[in-house]
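Continuing from yesterday's entry. The apo prediction looked reasonable, so today I'm repeating it with magnesium ion included to see how the binding region is handled. Same sequence as before; SMILES copied from the compound registry.
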Amino acid sequence: MCDVMIEVRDLRKSFGSNEILKGINMTVKKGEKVVIIGPSGSGKSTFLRCLNFLEIPTSGTVRIDGHYFVKPNEKLNEKHVAALRTEIGMVFQRFNLFPTMTALENVMAAQMKIRKKSKEAARETAEKYLRKVGLAERMNYYPSQLSGGQQQRVAIARALAMEPKAMLFDEATSALDPELVGEVLNVIRELAEEGMTMVLVTHEMKFAKEVGDRIIFMDGGVIVEEGHPKEFFHHPKEERTKAFIKKVEH
Amino acid sequence: MNLLEKLDFPTAFRELSPILIQGLGIVLGATLCGFFLALLLGTLIALGRISKVVLLDRMLIILLEIVRGTPLLVQLVYMYYVVPLLITIVGQLWDPSFRFTLSPFTAGVIGLGINYGCYLSEVIRSAITSVDKGQFEAALALGYTNRQAMWLIVIPQAVRIALPTFGNYIIMMIKDTSLLAFITVSELLLRTQAYASQTFLTIESYTLLALAYLVLSLPLAQIVRIMERRLTRHV
Ligand SMILES: Nc1ncnc2c1ncn2[C@@H]1O[C@H](COP(=O)(O)OP(=O)(O)OP(=O)(O)O)[C@@H](O)[C@H]1O
Ligand SMILES: [Mg+2]
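Holo prediction written out below.
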């Protein structure tokens, strides 16, 4: 078995004539935590969404644990894309819990529908992950009855319950009140310690330093610089990186 | 002759009530079938328009303009008297002995279904587009296919948003079934007319008719209000 989980080759993405991603290469090893930072509008979200094909790249390839979303020169097969997406959990800035389902039902639904688990098995798994994110007591609450931090933790449990090979976080704490950020970061941190492969987009630099094995700095649709957090934050090489670090640290 | 002295509500009530109750089946049957057809058509039209296929969208817009620009009564008359003739003409191109007819009830249900389907399609379309795009994406990210995400996640939420409006349309349709009298469906209005012209109990008959519609629609309106409150609780 190879030890590469995510491999991106020459990824480009345009909206109309507007090229947002201009040729990105990235390899994420199994168990590695990669943090993507960069100014607003630099294409971080677009890149992350390309990793599970929520955005379909204009060109280039994405491979997850050796499987292509679309093999070079082949046509997109919706079923295959959906199956591969199941292997990658995604956590959104705005939680996106299903409002008509309780926390428990949110975590159970896809297990039954997509993983074809029995109701009992799905429930057991759901309870396990809700307990893990500290919400065992709230599992029969509807999203509208939960705080933002609690909703985001349910969203993380929902993704984990699919037992994905990797997790993507797109600014998972940006929509939260400051006092609720910590509880979500704690869950993500714990996940990182357990060895989950993760790609995170975040504005929390302290957190990035702490959990990241590698920092990637994006600007203008390209990777400007990447490196080990210590190296990256204390000895940035590129001018653009220096300017960005200076700005976010003040 | 003093009209007031001749008023005879007890007789009218005794004689007309059973007649109206028989007509009730037709009213409810037409509403049920008509609304089901309208929902089906409305959903298909809405999905067709959301699909962003330009030609399809144009054609559907033309259909909507025609239906919304003509009175329901005219559509019903057209469906009963004209459409079968048109189909007969086309059919006779192959088989000269071909003849096509629609029963008044069937023509009425189809007419109501198409008319309401067009109006409902706008309700359904706006309900679907008002569901946060993030819901669809969250479902995709979990491994749902586009179709599964649409039918299992987005549409159930859209239905919740649209359900109270559907309720109001059902009440409107119940009242609109009175137009079926013009294409000889023996619903409440036609029955009342027949009774009134036999007995000359004009005031009594039509007052009872109006009451009958109220008895049908008021409780339904109440149900819609309760539904509205319950469904929007977690949205
Ligand atoms: N669906 C779309 N259609 C057109 N343009 C888009 C679309 N999605 C993103 N863009 C554009 O792509 C650019 C990059 O957006 P993206 O959301 O990836 O940036 P980002 O780095 O995540 O920014 P932020 O830090 O503000 O979240 C922006 O200019 C945005 O307007
Ligand atoms: Mg973003």
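Comparison notes:
- Residues A 15, 20, 38, 40-46 surround adenosine-5'-triphosphate (ligand 1) (CB under 6 Å).
- Chain B touches chain A at residues 132, 134-135, 137-146, 148, 152-153, 156-157, 160, 233-235 (CB under 8 Å).
Will overlay with the apo model tomorrow.
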